[in-house]
Amino acid sequence: MLITGANRGLGLDFVRRLAPEGWHIHACYRNPAKATDLQALADRHDVTLHALDVADFAQIDALKKTLGNEPIDVLFNNAGIMETIQRTLSLDHTNQMFDTLDEDEWMAVMRVNIMAPMRLCEVFVDNVAASARKQMLMMSSIVGSIGSNQTGRWYHYATSKTALNMVMRSLAADLKDRGITVMSLHPGWTQTDMGGPSAALTIDESVGGMVAVIKNLTPADSGRFIAWKGEDVPW
After folding, report:
1. Dihedral, CA of residue 138, residue 3, residue 143 and residue 205, to nearest 10
2. Which positions ≥6 away from 51 have C-beta within 8 Å?
3. Could you give the CA distance from residue 203 to residue 191 in angstroms, rounded to a whole number?
4. What dihedral angle (degrees, nearest 10) is formed by the CA atoms of 36, 201, 195, 54?
5. Judging by beta carbons within 10 Å of its beta carbon (0-12, 13-18, 19+), is residue 72 exposed, middle or buried?
6. Nearest Cα to Cα of residue 136 among 186, 182, 78, 71
7. Model confidence over 119-149: pLDDT tens digits?
């Protein structure tokens, strides 16, 4: 597995769960100073650490050179941001409300949440195709569901996740002949740095559900948008 955004929250818990099961994990992180927990896992398990800012495409290309043709069973585009300076999710993100949008911030969110996952899929498609599982996963959100949107606001983040789902659907069609399964995950409102302490789910509940979904994926699931409990999320 190659997973981005692995130094905290959901990404870190995926590594914490899967590494003891014998998975070989390439864990990518942006801030070395905040990767102490990840380093501790790497000291005990088959986890290789890579400093990677997904918004810097030259770093993605450099990672490809490092890994070469090594098969990657699961390419997990987990890294994502709501804004460049992370805050806890709230109803009053003032630069993501109608009439208070920050276009530069919006473009930065789009680069991390859409363009970076697409670039990673393009760069590592041969590695995934050479593996046994052949899976590409996108960490999406119900906030990107058009059918579920009754609240407005969060324009930067919501539109980025909607677009990510379309990227996923297009990849599922384009890569079908190579046997690659592509799908999006909704983790639920979870008690991470972004979700905040009042969120409905613990990280353990969210990641536990998503791990079960991932382990049971088949090529027939390609193109689906699936919640942590296993049900489809409305588009």
Report:
1. 110
2. 28, 29, 30, 32, 59
3. 6
4. 50
5. buried
6. 182
7. 999 999 999 999 999 999 999 999 999 998 8
Extended beta strands in 67-223, E state:
74-77, 135-139, 181-186
Report domain extents, the chain: 2-227
Q: What is the pLDDT of residue 192?
A: 72
* Dihedral sign of CA atoms 1, 33, 160, 112 in order: negative
DSSP percent split of the chain into helix, strand, coil, nearest 5 = 45, 15, 40
Structure tokens at 124: 């590592």
* SS3 call for 197: coil
CATH 3.40.50.720 fits 2-227, yes or no: yes
The CA distance from 231 to 145, in Å, is 14
